[in-house]
Amino acid sequence: MADFAAVQEKYAAEAQKRARPEGIAQFQILAQSSSERLRHLVDDIWADHAALDAQTPPINNGDSHKFLIVGAGICGLLGAVRLIEQGFTADQIRFVETAGGIGGTWYWNRYPGLHCDVESYIYIPLLEELGFMPSHKYAPGIEIRNHLNAVAKKYDLTDKILFRTQVEKLEWDDASRAWKTDMVTKRGPKGQDASRLEIKAEFVYLTAGLMNTPHVPKLGGVGLEGFEGDIFHTSLWNYDVTGGSSEEVFSDMSKLADKRVGIIGTGATAIQAVPCLAEYAKELYVFQRTPSAVYPRGQKVTTPEDWAQIASHPGWQLERMHNFAGKITKYLPPETPDLVNDAWSNSPAYCALLGDPSTEVVRPESVPDVMAHYLALDAPSSAALRARVADIVQDPDTAAKLTPWYPVWCKRPTFSDAYLQAFNRSNVRLVDTNGAGVSSVTKTGLALADGTEYPLDVLVLATGYRSPAAFTIDPATRAGVRVLGRGGRSLSEKVAAEGMTTLHGNASHGFPNLFWPGPGGSGTSANHQQVLDLHSRLVAYMVGAAHDRVGGDKARSRRARGVVLEVAQQAEDAWTMRVLAGAARFAVLRVCTPSYITGETYGAMKLGEQGSSEAMMRLAKAASYGGGIMKFTEVVDQWREEGKLAGIEVSLP
């Protein structure tokens, strides 16, 4: 017990030294930076702009379409595929995508060493439908990107996407029973030519992900924009600087052979990029504010024998996804075989963040017991993780600085069999800032608060993305769209006033025919693809079932115009109460170091304990469903099987 108490004291001390009252305000969004140099770090360098400029656009001013999907990443593609499976056609679907190609985060991110951190057999969508065998248990980014393009081709969606376009406004029009949509299309490598389009869409699906807004810290001195060496963000890796290619998993970055390279950040991206940089840079400086929890990866090639066993029967992928989520969230009995069997599925306490059947309802008076339960559950695993660092890193001082002191649920775990080992190389140096972060930038390098300067030739910003806590899981703000529902009410204003109130986490009263996936009011998983597919199936079912009420054969009903679905206020209120029933479990974040998950704040600041009870209630409504992803799946499956569209008001033309 004494050791357990000492660990908790260490957690608190390490978290407190990283606390900053400004929270997410310590960062600036690159696309909104006042510095032209920083703004251009997010220009789309991957697009073939000449080819896109020459294409016949799939959306023209004044068009009217049945479905508009905002985003052509995994969620957007899944949304379209599930609609097609419901009997709608590809010709009824249009996409708007800000990038110059398909893939979402897998389009933008192409840094060296990039792999999915979840098993590819459960993460890559539609493997069974396409008959595709991933090359490895954890697939490289280029393989995922190519597969998503193959999905679009198979379902005849490739020419239905308007690229380099931002939807700016959606406004519900009762007269036309559709959404009036304003968007801006840009041309050229820097978006220098723009044109506006106005169309109508009966149904809109917002699919913006949680990692779509790259940001960087606000630093003193000359600022990042004043650094005279090469600089780029990992969300758009600059291979012109490093050498290599975005089409390779492990590039030959020989241009770094005589370079002093610095990388800020030690999260999931850096865990994969650092070993690659270490192979080629003359000197590599890794600037760390908070060490990551680095679990073993256990990468392996997918053999034909493995695949025959994995993909042995129809429905295997969904079954495997459910097994993975069921093991993590304690939904399945302990004796159930673990099909994935990796560091994720063997993490005993990550369900503190995701929820499990025991936290479907958490009363305020039971919060101390809930916290004690999860801390005790996590203790052996975290102790083994800390011992792993000491076993791998040869220098004891470096090992101590690389050792994480927080429970597993506080930051997304990372997985690597090469990151910790990189610090045994003579050309790699850890610059630990003891929680303070880098203090300032000079023209030639970075400086710490004590005045120590590190001269650099190349600066890599592995500083991640704006936390979803910055907009309280508001899907409109996340997508960068102003959404005006019935009576001209803004979705963002509704969320600000009432909290994130929905039915099943994907639709809200007052905003008919508008859907989105997201963690608020929904089950969540370490495998986000499972969440996206669950919502894509659910939305497609709702739209299809509503059209069935038109009558006639399926093909005729699917062509009907003017069908309107809207969440009933009573159903929304009832579901929100179910979400609130388990929201108190997020008290486990009190022990966490500031991070992306906590909105870059610590303890009471994050949980709103110094704010009003109304503010705390709004925050709680943005929680994920307390029973966990598999219990949530059970709930919505039962709702769907009843076949009544309970809580959905359907209006026919």
Give a description of the structure.
This protein has a domain of 219 residues: FAD/NAD(P)-binding domain. It contains 24 helices and 23 strands. Helix 4 packs parallel to helix 19 and helix 19 packs parallel to helix 24. Strands 2, 3, 4, 5, 6, 7, 20 and 21 form an 8-stranded mixed β-sheet that branches. The chain has a 5-stranded parallel β-sheet with strand order 10-19-11-12-15, with helices on one face. It has a 4-stranded mixed β-sheet with strand order 9-16-17-18, with no helix packed on it. 34% of the residues lie in helices and 16% in strands. It is of the alpha/beta class and 653 residues long. The termini are far apart.
Task: Give me the secondary-structure topology.
Blueprint: H1 2-17, E1 27-29, H2 36-39, H3 49-54, E2 64-70, H4 74-85, E3 93-96, H5 105-108, H6 120-123, H7 127-130, H8 141-154, E4 161-162, E5 165-173, E6 178-187, E7 193-206, E8 215-217, E9 220-221, E10 230-233, H9 239-242, E11 260-264, H10 268-280, E12 283-288, E13 294-295, H11 304-310, H12 316-328, H13 351-354, H14 367-392, H15 396-401, E14 414-415, H16 419-422, E15 428-432, E16 440-442, E17 445-447, E18 453-455, E19 458-461, H17 475-479, E20 482-484, H18 491-498, E21 514-515, H19 528-548, H20 554-558, E22 564-567, H21 569-582, H22 604-607, H23 613-621, H24 629-642, E23 648-651
Parallel strand pairs: 2-3, 2-7, 3-4, 5-20, 7-21, 9-16, 10-19, 11-12, 11-19, 12-15, 13-14
Antiparallel strand pairs: 1-8, 5-6, 6-7, 16-17, 17-18, 22-23
